[in-house]
Amino acid sequence: MLERALADALERADETDEIALRLLDAAYEQFCRMGIRRSTMEDVARRAGVSRITAYRRFATKDALVEQVVRREFRRYFDRFLLDIQQAETAADRVVLGFASALGAIRRNPLIGGLMAVEPDVLVPSMVSDGGGTLATVQRFVAGQLRREQQAGNVSEDVDVELVAELMTRVSASFLVTPSQVVDLDDDEQVREVARRFLVPMLRPRQDR
Fold first, then answer.
1. Distance CA 87, CA 141 (A)
2. Taking every annotated instance into account, which residue ranges of this chain make up the domain HTH tetR-type (predicted)?
3. Helices 161-177 and 133-151, packing angle to 10 deg
């Protein structure tokens, strides 16, 4: 799901099915209000103003609808992330801004953040119990960004971008899945300071650390 969301964000996927979009919008609102477990396809169809049969023609199962809604939210997150990091002037600034943007966007997202807080057994297991697939997708995304920094001469060629991306991804995932008793994740400056002190140094060649 994340793999496709990332691909859609980078390739600017076309969305032309108006009925499907209405159902996705209705499902988003329904899931935010009632949660996924308590919502039915009938609820979503009613909110979208279409028949139950029409809803099932677009999405064969509730699980398929849930996947598409969550996928769209992650796609919006990737879109937002790519826009946010463009505001930074240096590779270090982009790491700091990207880290804070990622944690903030996901935690504050009404659907994804809400599910992690209220129905963690719906979303969290898919993030940590899928054989590492979710983390691997995000790791590849981060590694790709770091590799572009290397190609632009902003990060030393001596830096192992695959390993750095792995560590950055796991730090972010840990904060998302397990709330911190030390770092206030609602304090953006505190989150940025964590990135400056512990993530940015990973961009330097070993001998410079």
1. 19
2. 17-77
3. 130
CB atoms near residue 157 (< 10 Å):
9
DSSP secondary structure string, 30-55?
A: HHHHH-STT--HHHHHHHHTS-HHHH
**Domain range 1-71, its CATH number among 3.90.1150.10, 1.10.10.60, 1.10.357.10, 1.10.150.170:** 1.10.10.60
Which of 92, 51, 117, 110 is CA-nearest to residue 192? 92
- Provide CB contacts within 8 A for 168, sequence distance 6+: 95, 99, 142, 199, 202
Query: Burial, 165: exposed, middle or buried (Cβ in 10 Å; 0-12, 13-18, 19+)?
Result: buried
123-173 tens-digit pLDDT: 555 555 455 666 787 888 899 999 999 999 999 999 999 999 999 999 988
**pTM exceeds 0.85, yes or no:** no
Taking the CA of residue 202 as centre, how many other CA atoms within 13 Å lie in the half-sphere pointing to its CB?
A: 20
Domains 1-71 and 88-208 share a fold: no
Give CA–CA dist 126/130, Å, rounded: 6
Neighbours of 101 (CB within 10 A): 23
Closest CA to 6 of 115, 103, 121, 143: 143
